[in-house]
Amino acid sequence: MADSARQATRLDAIGGRFDPWLAGLAIALACLGVVMVGSSSIAQAADPFHYLTRHVVFLGAGAVLAVWLMRTELKAIEQRSQWLMLGCFVLLLLVFVPGIGHTVNGARRWLNLGVSNFQAVEAVKLLFIVWLASYLKRYSEEVTATWGAMLKPLGVASALVVLLLLQPDFGSSSLLLAITAGMLVLGGVNMPRMFGPVLVGLPLLAIVAIAEPYRMRRLTSFVDPFADPFGSGYQLANALMAVGRGEWFGVGLGSSIQKLSYLPEAHTDFILAVIAEELGFFGVCLVIALYAGLVGRALWVGLKCVEMRRHFSGYIAFGIALWMALQSLVSIGVNLGLLPTKGLTLPLISSGGSSVLMTCAALGLLLRVSYELDRAQRQVARLRGDGAQASAGFIPATAQPLPPTSPSAKPGDAARGTSRLRQRVEPTLGRTA
Question: Where exactly are the structural domains of the chain?
Answer without folding.
Answer: 25-377
